[in-house]
Design brief:
Elements (H helix, E strand, L loop, with lengths): L1 H19 L16 E5 L9 E6 L5 E5 L2 E5 L4 E3 L13 E6 L5 E5 L4 E5 L2 E4 L11 E6 L5 E5 L2 E6 L2 E5 L12 E4 L5 E4 L3 E6 L4 E8 L6 E4 L5 E4 L3 E4 L23 E3 L5 E3 L6 E4 L10 E2 L9 E2 L8 E6 L5 E5 L2 E6 L4 E2 L10 E4 L5 E5 L4 E6 L2 E4 L8 E4 L5 E5 L2 E6 L2 E6 L11 E8 L2 E6 L3 E6 L2 E3 L13 E3 L5 E5 L3 E6 L2 E5 L12 E3 L5 E4 L2 E6 L2 E5 L12 E4 L5 E4 L4 E4 L1 H9 L8 E3 L17 E3 L5 E5 L2 E5 L13 E8 L2 E3 L5 E3 L6 E7 L8 E8 L6 E4 L3 E4 L5 E11 L9 E7 L7 H65 L7 H25 L5 H20 L2 E7 L8 H22 L3 E8 L3 E8 L6 H6 L7 H11 L2 E8 L2 E9 H5 L6
Parallel strand pairs: 59-65, 66-67
Antiparallel strand pairs: 1-28, 2-3, 3-4, 4-5, 6-7, 7-8, 8-9, 10-11, 11-12, 12-13, 14-15, 15-16, 16-17, 18-19, 19-20, 20-24, 21-22, 22-23, 23-25, 26-27, 27-28, 29-56, 30-31, 31-32, 32-33, 34-35, 35-36, 36-37, 38-39, 39-40, 40-41, 42-43, 43-44, 44-45, 46-47, 47-48, 48-49, 50-51, 51-52, 52-53, ...
Helix pairs in contact: 3-4, 4-5, 5-6, 6-8
Length: 998
């Protein structure tokens, strides 16, 4: 009992889930069967023939069992079921399909056998060799997880993999079983072709219910209240068995069988397929209640669609989760679904209808050829009691109705009616009234094809030329305040009123080509082939939509009490909500949101031409719209829009010549660069309005769509992992909450893998290291050769040149020593000897620079001091040297050498060209930089020379600048009447080459 209570709880959850499915409602009993949208799929549309059973699984798929295999249908295309490799159906001929609550599809075969389709895989409960029963009529999954099979040779029970034939031990007398079902109490009912039995689970025995089932075609069906009936070809009988202490907590559904031709939809309407192969829908209101009744009297012409061809014999009826009725036939599939618009019954030869609402809210119409006057009551036209020969009707001002009759105008108002004779001479009967509208309480406009346009006011008729308006007009309207709007070709609209005549043209924004429709109920609207425009701020501006064609061919408008607009167009009825209309008028760039009720919703095809009063609405919200082939009727109380987004389904991935199912791992070979994806959405009401958006994650960030296409293709894909994501929606509706996904992997070639790239990187890095080491060895070798050459030159200078110069110096010193102290040449020789010592000093410093490890700062200080001593001897001028080096910094050799030459050039210029008496040299070694300053008190350098950079043929200034650039220093030369100052600043890193010592 504990297990049974748990199973009951699960069943309750199933019931609640079914109740929460959006859009799950039956077909409306207020509709007759001929008013439903009826679609037929035959072999030409790809439907399989010889269908024997139909079922819908929990995932939404519609399955068809046929003589030649298993098919599924998504609302647009039929697809033969292809099992996974290594799997197959036991037989092709499938007699019965059943949808289990857990999502399984139960499959029974015509010649015996039972299989389960679960998550795309087949599980066989029987085999060709081990087949415990014969021809199968019905299959059922019980609440306890076991299965029942009704076959031509009896009743079978499958429990835990063990088959048991139900017979005397169960008190079941039947030798065959036609039907099985579970009622809302979880009770099992069985029909054996003679009686109906119910299972007592406590004793595992069957007992008779007292209800007879004497026909093989007797069907178990449940009504909207969950009560069980058994239906034969001529009668419906309730199976009323007291449930005892059981509670009604199980989901019920009319069980599938080989042939189910009686069906209660969830709204209580009864669907029948009698022997004559007609399809009948008996509204719930016509049924006699919960008692047995004969179905023969209910098969009226209003309830049935007539006899069908012999090859379309009905074999099964099913209601899907959206409330559509499906009829499986021996040669195809049919569907009955709601039409949001109903066609008004009319037996006349043709429609050229005009509609109007009178002061009492009654809708009247003039229709037919020849035209006749009718009152409209819902979907029915009834001849009007008076003025039946009226040829045109038009709503007037203040809820009046104006009729054009052969004798004159008839104005019907709340207080009665009055007649207005036509102008004299009256038009001929062959010249009917084509235009008719009321300007004010006592003013009317009437137009004939040949007689022209006339105006009646103040008891007299006048021609339109008296008002300065063109004769050939298209649309017209009056606002009830004396203003008349007339539309013409060539983008011209004319307003005639108390303020005079105002003409609007292209300069005023009119751009509808021919203004065939004008409406002034709330806004001034004009419409034509060019679209829809509204008057705002003295100009007409466009109202735009995503599909511009829906706003062309407008010839009627009803404004509901809440402000919604319902336009009658050549495409259908265009519904615009008040908020969407206001949004489009506030911002010209906003596209108008709308829903279109077209032929898929029951709109009669074809737009009327030349008639303007083609739409009318009653105070209770009902509306009528006239088209060239009928009048559409809309009743908001019986409107059944499809709003729930259909679930998206990925059918297959196609790549490399192979088709991958949605449950397969899609791993593609290297080199694959093109992938296609087939997808759909399980929308069975109006699948033509399903749109999709998708993206390939890993390649795209944004959604592609919306699009009605059910295939996506990608080319030039690189190796990697991708995920195809899919959502579906009804046009204008929200996207599905669930997103269908499938992973796709394109395997790379070895040369496209990351570790191949890593190996290539490592190889390049190794080659770079080897190249660097080779280059370093080359450079090092060259540097060693250079150092050895410098050392050789240093040795040669020291051992030859400097030794020779030293010998000459000693020789001169001997000569000087031999001369008397007052000898006139002694001073000249002393000066020459000083120059020789200077050459010796400079030579030694050059040798030091050639030797590695020399200290440039020490060499610079000594060299500058020796150089200045030489200049003092030569010129006899005052030369000061100031060296500041508190930290004992050392200049790089190259910097010291260039600084020395700059000092030499600056001092030489000051002594040779400046004409001053004093020269100062400062060497400052600071923490931030090395600074040199050479100053004199001479006459300075001419400004023109400084601006030019030096004198022609002299390179001293140029050489100092070049040496400053070599050491990355900044050289400044300032000259004036007070003398010349040369400064050089070399940054710390360029001067010292490393952090200075403390």
């Amino acid at each position: 009992m504990r297990i049974y209570r748990q199973l009951r709880a699960v069943a309750v959850l199933v019931i609640l889930f079914a109740a929460l499915v959006p859009g799950a409602r039956a077909l409306d009993g207020d509709f007759r069967i001929g008013e439903f949208h009826h679609d037929v799929w035959g072999p030409k549309e790809g439907a399989p023939s010889t269908i024997l059973s139909i079922a819908q699984t929990r995932d939404g798929w519609l399955w068809l069992g046929t003589y030649r295999g298993l098919y599924r249908f998504d609302g647009t295309a039929f697809e033969r079921f292809v099992p996974f490799p290594g799997e197959s159906l036991t037989y092709n001929a499938i007699s019965t399909l059943a949808a289990a609550p857990n999502g399984d599809l139960l499959i029974a075969y015509l010649t015996g056998g039972f299989s389960i389709l679960r998550n795309g895989h087949l599980m066989h409960m029987t085999s060709v060799r081990d087949q415990p029963f014969s021809n199968t009529f019905t299959v059922l999954g019980d609440v306890d997880g076991t299965y029942w099979i009704g076959a031509v040779d009896g009743l079978m029970h499958l429990d835990g993999g063990r088959w048991e034939r139900v017979g005397a031990a169960w008190h079941y007398p039947g030798t065959r079983t036609d039907n099985l079902t579970l009622d809302r109490y979880g009770r099992l009912f069985v029909s054996d072709g003679a009686d109906v039995h119910v299972l007592d689970r406590a004793t595992r025995t069957f007992r008779r219910t007292g209800v007879r089932s004497e026909e093989m075609s007797a069907d178990f069906v449940f009504d909207a209240a969950g009560r069980l009936w058994i239906g034969t070809d001529g009668a419906m009988t309730p199976v009323d068995v007291a449930p005892g202490a059981l509670e009604p907590d199980h989901a019920v559904n009319t069980p599938p069988a080989m042939t189910i031709r009686k069906y209660f939809d969830r709204d209580g309407n009864l669907w029948l397929a009698p022997d004559d192969n007609a399809i009948c829908m008996v509204p719930r209101a016509s049924l006699p209640g919960y008692r047995a009744f004969s179905t023969a009297p209910l098969r009226s012409s209003r309830n049935c669609i007539g006899s069908r061809p012999g090859d379309q014999r009905v074999v099964g009826i099913l209601e899907d989760r959206d409330g559509n009725i499906w009829v499986a036939t021996s040669n195809g599939l049919e569907r009955f679904r709601h039409n949001r618009l109903r066609t008004v019954d009319y037996a006349g030869p043709s429609y050229r209808a005009a509609l109007a609402r009178d002061a009492g809210g009654t809708i009247t119409a003039v229709a037919g050829q020849p035209p006749r006057y009718f009152s409209v009551d819902g979907p029915v036209l009834r001849p009007a009691p008076a003025h039946g020969d009226a040829s045109l009707v038009r709503p007037g001002v203040d809820d009046t109705v104006v009729l054009a009759t052969p004798r004159g105008l008839v104005v019907r108002a709340r207080g009665g009616e009055r007649a207005i004779p036509y102008p004299v001479p009256a038009p001929a009967p062959t010249d009917p009234v084509r235009r008719l509208f009321q300007e004010s309480a006592d003013a009317f406009w009437v137009g004939w094809t040949r007689h022209g346009l006339w105006r009646y006011a103040g008891g007299a008729w006048s021609k339109p030329a008296d008002y300065g308006t063109p004769v050939l007009r298209a649309g017209d309207a009056a606002d009830g305040h004396g203003n008349v709007w007339l539309g013409y070709a060539n983008n011209t609209v004319v307003r005639v009123g108390p303020a005079g005549v105002r003409k609007y043209g292209a300069a005023d924004g009119v751009d509808v080509r021919v203004a065939t429709f004008i409406d002034v109920q709330r806004d001034v609207l004009i419409a034509g082939d060019g679209g829809l425009q509204v008057l705002a701020g003295g100009r007409f501006r466009d109202v735009r939509a995503a599909d511009p064609d829906v706003l062309t061919g407008i010839n009627g408008l009803v404004i509901a009490p809440g402000g919604d607009r319902w336009f009658n167009t050549h495409r259908g009825v265009l519904h615009v909500r008040a908020a969407d209309w206001d949004a489009a008028l506030r911002a010209p760039g906003v596209l108008l949101r709308y829903e279109l009720l077209d032929r898929l919703d029951g709109f009669p095809n074809g737009a009327q031409i030349g008639i303007e009063a083609t739409a009318a609405g009653a105070p209770d919200g009902r509306m009528w719209f006239a088209a060239s082939s009928g009048i559409a009727y809309y009743d908001p109380r019986h409107d059944h829009p499809a709003t729930a987004a259909p679930p998206p389904v990925i059918r297959a991935v196609i790549a490399g010549g192979r088709r991958f199912g949605p449950q397969e791992a899609v791993s593609l070979a290297p080199g694959t660069d093109h992938v296609g994806v087939e997808f759909t959405a399980l929308s069975y009401t109006i699948p033509e309005r399903t749109v999709f958006r998708y993206r390939l994650e890993g390649l795209e960030r944004d959604w592609q769509g919306p699009s009605a296409m059910r295939y996506a293709s990608y080319a030039n894909l690189k190796p990697g992992k991708y995920t195809f994501a899919l959502q579906a929606a009804l046009q204008g509706g929200a996207w599905s909450r669930d997103t269908a996904r499938i992973d796709v992997e394109i395997r790379p070639y070895f040369t496209q893998t990351w570790w191949f790239l890593l190996l290539c990187g490592l190889g390049l890095a190794g080659a770079a290291v080897l190249l660097y080491r080779w280059r370093l060895r080359e450079v090092t070798g060259r540097l060693h050769l250079l150092l050895r050459e410098r050392q050789r030159i240093a040795r040669a200078l020291h051992d030859t040149f400097l030794q020779s110069v030293q010998a000459l110096v000693w020789r001169f010193e001997q000569i000087i020593d031999d001369l008397p102290a007052q000898h006139e040449d002694r001073r000249l020789l002393d000066l020459t000897l000083a120059q020789a010592h200077e050459v010796m000093t400079e030579g030694r410093h050059q040798i030091i620079d050639l030797r590695p490890g020399a200290d440039g700062s020490v060499a610079l200080d000594a060299r500058v001091a020796a150089m200045l001593d030489s200049f003092r001897l030569r010129f006899g001028k005052t030369i000061d040297l100031d060296i500041v080096n508190p930290d004992g910094a050392s200049l790089l050799c190259v910097v010291a050498d260039e600084v020395f030459h700059i000092v030499h050039e600056a001092v030489s210029n000051a002594l040779c060209h400046g004409g001053g008496t004093r020269v100062g040299v400062e060497l400052h070694y600071t923490a931030a930089a090395f600074a040199l300053r050479v100053s004199d008190d001479g006459r300075g350098i001419a400004a023109a020379v400084l601006a030019k950079g030096g004198r022609d043929g002299h390179w001293g200034l140029t050489g100092m600048r070049e040496r400053a650039r070599i050491v990355k220093g900044t050289l400044r030369i300032e000259s004036g009447a007070a003398g010349t100052v040369v400064t050089l600043r070399v940054g710390r890193k360029a001067a010292y080459g490393r952090p200075r010592r403390s």
